[in-house]
Amino acid sequence: MTDLPRLQLLECVLEAVSVGTVVLDRQHRIVLWNKWMSRHSGWDLHRAVGADLFALLPELRGGRVQAAVTQALENNFSSLLSQTLNRSPFPLFSNPAAQARGERMQQAVAVTPLALPGVERHCLIQLTDVSMAAGREKLLREQTELLRMQTFSDGLTGVANRRAFDVAIDREVRRAKRNGSMVSLLMIDIDYFKPYNDHYGHQQGDQCLIQVSSALQALLQRSVDMLARYGGEEFAVILPDNDGQQAMHMARTLHARIEALALPHESAPGPVKHVTVSIGVATLAAGRHGEVAALIGAADHALYAAKRQGRNGIVAAPDELI
Ligand SMILES: Nc1nc2c(ncn2[C@@H]2O[C@H](COP(=O)(O)OP(=O)(O)OP(=O)(O)O)[C@@H](O)[C@H]2O)c(=O)[nH]1
After folding, report:
1. PAS domain: from which residue to which, for each copy (predicted)?
2. Which residue, 52, 93, 233, 271, could crosslink 193 as a Cys pair with Cβ 3.0–4.6 Å?
């Protein structure tokens, strides 16, 4: 240890630390304002010391900082201000460029009562720049969201993928059983898609899948309805709270929309020379104890019946299947 007087050493430390340090007396007058505060606020020591904090920074009046200062001075309580409520209570800037952009520093603020011998209680406000950590946190949140989207959406069409479908159908069937409500399922398959690919090429086949899926998606108005790519050229639509009639109505609407798209399909074996779909419809009736597999099986069965009947049509599963 050097011979440096202890007070002088403490002063040096106070000016060197990367923490904003402000001490207020009982009347909210600033008695200490360190270099960090001057650097990030633009107000030097002479302007700050002696001033009432809430006169100097009127925007702090009536807010959480004033409440915390009162708690410290009146009740001897420490507070750590939550960053979720206000990330930047003080008008501080990490650097001049951020100040020019009007981008405030994100702050962690701690307010602590100071019991000084022989004088009335003071309070210490400590401020830390957490902008970098907050930035990293934001990036992490964005990456997590992107990952979630990639995990649950189909890379080609952007609609929900098979994994998302599996989760959703399970959830909706359980919800229907719990509430004694219904849930319907449509299985939609593009007809003669292999000859389409063979004739127009795989890339055009991909475009066809994109056009069909976005046309279907555009018709689902309720947020609870879900279109998913079930596999290859097969799509599924979950319709919570829809009975067989409502599901049939939706199937006809979707079918007609694909007809109206009139995407050319020169190599289709039949007389119809545009892209068509076959649809199987199944409903889990209220009060029945059908399982997810039974509902999917019934919709699939109905879809293959539609294929057998010549394609470009809709078949509903008989009630007793589920
Ligand atoms: N372009 C493209 N083709 C795909 C994709 N996924 C599956 N397919 C093709 O879809 C075709 C499906 O053919 P099939 O299952 O024989 O059925 P289909 O020719 O549509 O005949 P039906 O369903 O009986 O009317 C196959 O040729 C697959 O290669 C994809 O992501 N992109």
Report:
1. 6-76
2. 233
